[in-house]
Amino acid sequence: MKKGLIEMVCMGNRTRSASAELVAKNHLEKIGAARDYGVVSSGVNVNQIKNGEFSEEEIREFVDQSVDVGLDKGYGRLSEIVNSIKNGEYSEEMKMEFIGLMWDLEGKERDLALKYFGIGGEAKQTSDQTIVKPDRYAILPVCSKTHKYVNGIYQESGYDPKIHILSALATGNDSAEIGGSILPGESYRDVIQRSIGNIVEHTPKAIDKLLDEAA
After folding, report:
1. Distance (Å, whole) CA 117 – CA 111
2. What is the pLDDT of residues 49-64, one digit of tens each?
3. What's the pTM value of the predicted model, to 2 decimals?
4. How far does Cα 136 stand from its chain's mean position?
5. Which sequence spans correspond to the domains of the chain?
């Protein structure tokens, strides 16, 4: 019987936490601890994304960010929608299509990045909302925003899993996190690849520290 589950958490359970889940599973197999610990992942905004619960203002902000990373050119239908919204058009149908196309692109770029870093196996294709679970041994949010959400839902739950920001645990630097920031001149692929690179580097170190605490 497994000692417990380790849960990776990001916003949409598409790139960072799904990749961390895969990297962690591979690492547990490598060190012979997969019988004792399992790994899952979730996202704090999964239901919001699935239901399209974003305001027009929020969508326009996402579109502006999409332009910043070059998605207004060379991405077919996605670029068409980005440019239409950028130029003032908007409808619920456009919003939902934009969300769906971004979801598909993010998954494709994630898988390319995992392959680039030599990560075996396949990241999950589904997404799960972050909720309180009694069997969690530890929860590793990838950033301060998701850390705050996890702390909030567990605060009065009666359950007390270990909760650490993944990169902070891995590096010993309390301010370390894997956020969704965009650096000047980065393409969308650059952003995804940088996030996955940090996941690949930090996840095994965080897992090792968790297991050391449990020993």
Report:
1. 10
2. 999 999 999 999 999 9
3. 0.96
4. 18
5. 4-44+115-214, 50-110
